[in-house]
Structures are given as structure tokens and as C-alpha cells.
Specification:
Helix content: 25-40%
Distance between the termini: 46 Å
Shape: elongated
Low-confidence stretches: none
Mean pLDDT: 88
Number of helices: 9
Radius of gyration: 24 Å
Strand content: 15-25%
Strand order of the largest sheet: 1-2-5-4
Structural class: alpha+beta
Largest sheet: 4 strands, mixed
């Protein structure tokens, strides 16, 4: 069962929950929403003191809701569409922004760009993602596993197709279609290239590219 707003207000800030007094610091709000979308989702409650949990509410809630929606639409790429609601608590009005884990990860702060503006949630903090983490976010969003990633600097000749056919001899005939279905090759930039898994299994220069691996 999902906790009520009254219950949420008593909970500590964490991976999926944050409080803001108002939207006077839009940059921090945008970072939080980006981090929620890139991690496990979360809820931002505006109109609550983050240290004392005092419910202050927001003034001119309809205007603030419109301003917040404009900030989200203009400040985040790819476009993020969270659930924004006005909620009454203790005769005051709060702004609730609920973000779901995004299938378009990574999202980033528009003004900072893709290289510098990707954030993830670590505990109750927003942390800037490095290049490796950005790549991992892309993989998890598309459902692509590490061994299926292409190696675009290599060609089909980097695989020992003869050895692969020998291994499968008597079990199945290995043609281009079968090799593709086994994810040993994939298309990248209009060309067939080996995958990491293909090179790990049948790469002619496997030890040079992956010196620490053993089969």
C-alpha cells in the first residue's frame, strides 16, 4: 500500500522522496527530478520545510503549478512528463510531483547538456553521473546487456567464424542469420560488427582486447 501524504511528511528524505519549501531554487528542483527519473523514480513535495517538516503550503498554487510545469518542460531533456498535483494538507495546498523510472534514460538538465547534466539519486542526494554511468543508464533503458554491446571499431573478420561453425557442427548450421540471432554480430552505424560477447567467445584478438578474461 502506498503511504498517504500525511505519512510521507513524517518520513525522512531518501532515494525516492524529497521536500522543498518553495520553488525559489528551480535548478535544484530540476536536478532532483532528473535524478528521480534516471534512478528509481520518486516524489517531490513542495510546500514543506525539509528540516522541520512544517507544512507551509504554497502561495498562489495554480500560478505556482503552471510555473513548475514550465520549468520542467523547459529544463529537462528528453522531455519528462511527471504527475503534478495540488494536494490539500492541514488546510494548506502542497505541490506534489511524482516521477516514474524513465524508459528514455538518461535525462539531463538542459542548460548543462548531456555530458555534464545527468544526475542520479544516491540516498537523499543528487550525484552527477560520469561517462560510464551514463552509458550504463542507456543500456538499462534499452534492455541491452553488456555482452550484446557493439564494438564498432572492429569488423566481422575479428571473429573466428570457422571455429564457431566447428563448435556448432552437428547441432545447427551457422549462417549470417544464425550468428546475428546468437548476438555475436550486430548492426552499428550501418555495418555488421562484432559484439562484446562475440569477441569474448570467438574473437581472434580476444586476449588483447580483454586481457583479464578467461573462458
Amino acid at each position: 500500500m502506498n503511504p498517504s501524504i500525511s505519512q510521507l511528511i513524517t518520513m525522512p528524505e531518501g532515494k525516492t522522496l524529497e521536500f522543498k519549501r518553495d520553488i525559489s531554487s528551480p535548478k535544484n528542483i530540476i536536478k532532483t527530478l532528473v535524478a528521480f527519473a534516471n534512478t528509481a523514480g520518486g516524489r517531490l513535495l513542495i510546500g514543506v520545510e525539509d528540516d522541520t517538516r512544517e507544512v507551509r503550503g504554497v502561495e498562489n498554487p495554480l500560478d505556482e503549478e503552471e510555473r513548475l510545469c514550465d520549468l520542467i518542460a523547459d529544463g529537462i531533456l528528453p522531455r519528462l512528463v511527471p504527475n503534478v498535483e495540488l494536494i490539500s494538507v492541514e488546510d494548506k495546498t502542497l505541490l506534489s510531483v511524482e516521477v516514474y523510472p524513465s524508459g528514455q534514460r538518461p535525462h539531463w538538465v538542459r542548460k548543462e547538456g548531456l555530458d555534464e547534466g545527468v544526475y542520479v539519486r544516491l540516498g537523499s542526494t543528487n550525484r552527477k553521473a560520469d561517462r560510464e554511468l551514463i552509458a550504463e543508464l542507456k543500456r538499462t533503458a534499452t534492455g541491452t546487456s553488456f555482452d550484446e554491446l557493439p564494438l564498432p571499431d572492429l569488423s566481422v573478420e575479428a571473429l573466428d567464424i570457422v571455429a564457431a561453425k566447428q563448435l556448432f557442427k552437428g547441432k545447427r548450421e551457422l549462417g549470417e542469420r544464425e550468428i546475428l540471432s546468437l548476438k555475436m554480430l550486430t548492426e552499428a552505424q550501418g555495418h555488421l560488427v562484432p559484439t562484446i560477447g562475440g569477441v569474448l567467445l570467438f574473437g581472434k584478438g580476444r586476449e588483447e582486447r580483454f586481457p583479464d578474461v578467461w573462458i
